Amino acid sequence: MKLTYADFRELEWTSGGPGTGRPIAKKKIRSLSTSHVVNILNWVKDRPAQYGPEMHGLFETEVNMRKLVSFARGHRIPTKQPDGYWGYAPK
Does residue 31 contact residue 39 with C-beta atoms inside 8 Å? Predict the structure, then answer.
């Protein structure tokens, strides 16, 4: 069964834990900050064998949706860099 974008947004992402110096945090993808989603997208891009192209594509879709929201709210807008990684345009 293929994961839909709506189902993807309901998945729980776990960050932190042993060896990171940070407590374990679990949040639904839709509840994560945009900067956190950008960091995760770059993390997934670096680990294609672990996450696969489908997960990378879903995270890119999420960031693209958040670009619109960021623009509408006057926030910093995530942008895809020439090397394929995501970051933020300078203000």
Answer: no
Specify the amino acid at residue 14.
T
pTM score, whole prediction: 0.85
Domain boundaries, the chain: 5-88
User: Contact 26/17 with Cβ under 8 angstroms?
Assistant: no
For residue range 41-87, what is the model confidence (pLDDT) as tens digits? 999 999 999 988 999 999 999 999 999 999 999 999 999 999 999 99
- CB count within 10 Å of CB 59 equals 23
Find residue 80's DSSP bridge partners.
Answer: 86
Strand partners, 15: 25
CA distance 51 to 46: 9
